[in-house]
């Protein structure tokens, strides 16, 4: 299953470096190569990215992962949701820390 967190991270990394390899994505995200492949296929299937071969590359198996207009819009929406979730997590942790500090 492609969670919003992985969708956010994948779209962000692909937007920053469209020529990134699946192996490097897997390493940077801390997930398996198979999961990266599955997630990329899912993003292609829903039209958020398109995949193109390098034409002038020595590495003929190299690909460019380009965000579609729909992908750019989805990335913005997911980024907002991801940010809101992280802010909520931060607020909960700050409250918990304050409670622990008061009990000491």
User: Please, what is the CATH homologous superfamily?
Assistant: Winged helix-like DNA-binding domain superfamily/Winged helix DNA-binding domain
> Helical percent range?
55-70%
CATH architecture descriptor: Orthogonal Bundle
- H/E series, N to C? HHHEEH
Total beta strands: 2
Described by the principal axes of the CA atoms, the overall outline is elongated
Class by alpha and beta content: mainly alpha
> So how many helices?
4
Given this structure, which CATH class is correct? Mainly Alpha
Task: Describe the model.
The chain has 104 residues and is mainly α. It has one domain: Orthogonal Bundle (Arc Repressor Mutant, subunit A). It is 66% helix and 10% strand. The chain is built from four helices and two strands. It has helices spanning 4-16, 22-29, 33-45, 69-103; strands at 49-53, 63-67. The chain has a two-stranded antiparallel sheet. Helix 1 crosses helix 4 and helix 2 packs across helix 3 (33-45). The termini are far apart.
Key terms for this structure?
104 residues; mainly alpha; Arc Repressor Mutant, subunit A; 10% strand; elongated
Short summary of the structure?
The protein has 104 residues and is mainly α.
Helices and strands in order:
Blueprint: H1 4-16, H2 22-29, H3 33-45, E1 49-53, E2 63-67, H4 69-103
Antiparallel strand pairs: 1-2
């Amino acid at each position: 299953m492609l969670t919003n967190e992985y969708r956010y991270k994948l779209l962000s990394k692909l937007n920053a470096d469209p020529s990134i390899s699946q192996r490097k994505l897997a390493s940077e995200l801390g997930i398996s190569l198979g999961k990266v492949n599955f997630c990329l296929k899912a993003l292609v299937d829903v039209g958020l990215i398109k995949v193109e071969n390098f034409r002038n590359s020595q590495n003929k198996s190299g690909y460019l992962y380009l965000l579609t207009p729909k992908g750019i819009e989805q990335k913005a929406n997911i980024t907002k949701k991801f940010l809101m979730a992280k802010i909520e997590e931060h607020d909960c942790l700050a409250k918990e820390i304050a409670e622990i500090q008061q009990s000491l």
